[in-house]
Model the fold of this input.
Amino acid sequence: MKRMQCPLNGLRNISEFVYGGQVTTMPDPATCTDEQWAHYVFYEDNDIGVVREWWLHAPSGYWFIAERHNASDEIVRTYDASECFSSRVDFSASETSS
Amino acid sequence: MPFALLKYGLSDDHPYEREPDIPAPRDLKSHYDVVIIGGGGHGVATAYYLAKYHGVTNVAVLEKAYLGGGNTARNTAVIRSNYLTPEGVKFYSASVKRYEQLSNEFDFNIMYSQRGQLTLAHTDATVRAFRQRAEVNKHFGGRTELIDRQAIAELVPTLNLDPADLPVLAGLWHRDGATARHDAVAWGYAKGATQRGVELHQLTEVTDILKEGNKVTGVVTNRGRIQCNTVVQAVAGHSALLARKAGFELPLVAYPLQAMVTQPVKPFLNPLVSSSALHCYVQQTSRGEIVIGGGSDPYPLYSSRSSLELKESLIAHAIEMFPFMSEMRLLRQWAGITDMTTDYSPIMGLSPVENYYIDAGWGTWGFKATPICGWTMAELVASGGQVPDLIQPFALERFSHFRQVNEMGATAASH
Done:
């Protein structure tokens, strides 16, 4: 079976992991247009090349980031999300509007 | 009369057609009215209906490999219309009606075989969903009903009604369910189209799209440039990559879809049988082989490789349904690249580029829609961009306005 290097648990079978979508930048829900939000929700690059993706190690409930080539299926690198996200993403969006 | 037969065999006086079904390749012309990118079922069907019903024959179908060699050859040839949304059911029912007449339409046998399709429910939630699907289907003229365990046992005596911890509770019996020879569908359309003047160019890959302002004016191929008034793209798994060349994005993600077929055995299975909870469907071809298919791969990939994990789980579930199949051997296995939308409905119609029409997002449900796709795309092209009612719900712009057509009756959708 194909295996993936989990940054927390080491080399594990691919069946223990769940794919979580491409790592994209979330627009500010309080200020972005509906169009921008729709784009964020529905569109991924879907180009051929190395893609940064969210993956979950299901048995330990641990989310991390993998860089994977989406044609050769080669996993280039896996690492903890703290490498990309240094501060907490705030979803409260100022509780304004409507 | 062996000598008479031999003599007849060696003579020139045969009743077969002298003309080849599909004419030999010619040089590309410098201009076509319509260029269709993708020589699969959808592309050649569009060309066929354009030529036959709209008199548009200055058409080139450009195929980077060979006719019907992509997902048209890789699907498992299921034809059905028992979907969930009114938009989907109306559309796929229209496709089933065209399939029923297709051999006559072509004068070419597509081996259409309407044996019915049975989907199994293993949970109460699925039974409720099936009830809804049956009612929606009946409303739009499909033949679909909910049946109980006894009726299932009578329909498919070889089926194990208590697989593992998932006893079968009920079934969605769809009499309109059918299968056909997928290659023949592409060949029939290609033959009919080329006989009416359409040019099919195989081994011709589109490498770029030419535009003037926001209007398409031609394509660049590995065999040179072509000017044209209109472009239709119907390239399945590579839809998003081609659209990017035309200058816009499609909300698609490419996932492999795997399937396999066993050695041929005596006929034992008439209907097509599918299980929502086991993510597996099984059918017997007219040659006696058992086709096994299921849901998409668990993560995206632009590759038609197979993986042992997915094959193993598909086979395990197929054997849960038909335990005696454990003694059978696999003959072939393969995969195709599907372009999945988030709502399991296609993307059809206008694009952000003028005179550039899209037929994409066919995921795991493209083959069954071939005739109606060709029919509606031809109408769209011939009318110069009037979107037929049947495909209006599938417009690309639905993803900008949160108006998805949530088609949970798709095979890849988990229930």
